[in-house]
Design brief:
With 179 residues, the chain is α+β, with helices and mostly antiparallel strands. Helices cover 58% and strands 9% of the residues. A four-stranded mixed sheet has the order 2-1-3-4, with helices on both faces. The longest helix is centred in the N-terminal third of the chain and has 19 residues. The protein is globular, with a radius of gyration of 19 Å.
Length: 179
Amino acid sequence: GMKSHEARRRNKMMSPSLRCVAVVLSVLAAATTALVPLSPLLTTNGNKIENTRQQRRYERREPVVRMSAEGAMLPSTRAKIEGLIETNKVMLFMKGTKVFPQCGFSNMAVQILSAIDKNFETCDVLADDAVRSGIKEFSDWPTIPQLYVNGEFVGGSDIMMEMYQDGELQELIEVANAS
């Protein structure tokens, strides 16, 4: 049967390519957290945090919350992303274009999709900074390319390759195009 995309994404979260990112992020988080006076810690809505587990969880999240608050997605960007995903059965957010990909991972994603069905849409995130940062927040996935099929987030190039080799991606796209 088809393994859930969720499970795949969880397994992939610490793939070697992302481990480096995770290390950088944890160093950044530690550095950022150190700058924050820890007591009294307030949640974003101003309520004091009661238990320490919740406080620890909040301390871990805090830098991310602050960073996304600064660069929070505009409603217009969210609407643009939603529009692209809703109007195209197979939608790839990538660096560059189908004809001229600007990154190896985006190129791999295009090659995989082209092998299945030439009929897919792409959005060049390099041409739109708001979409480039917005799509990561939208999907809660840190890297690009990102594939959406039938409005659902599938994953990045590594997940696409794995699913393609298992025949799952072909099936997913076939079902989407038939609906």
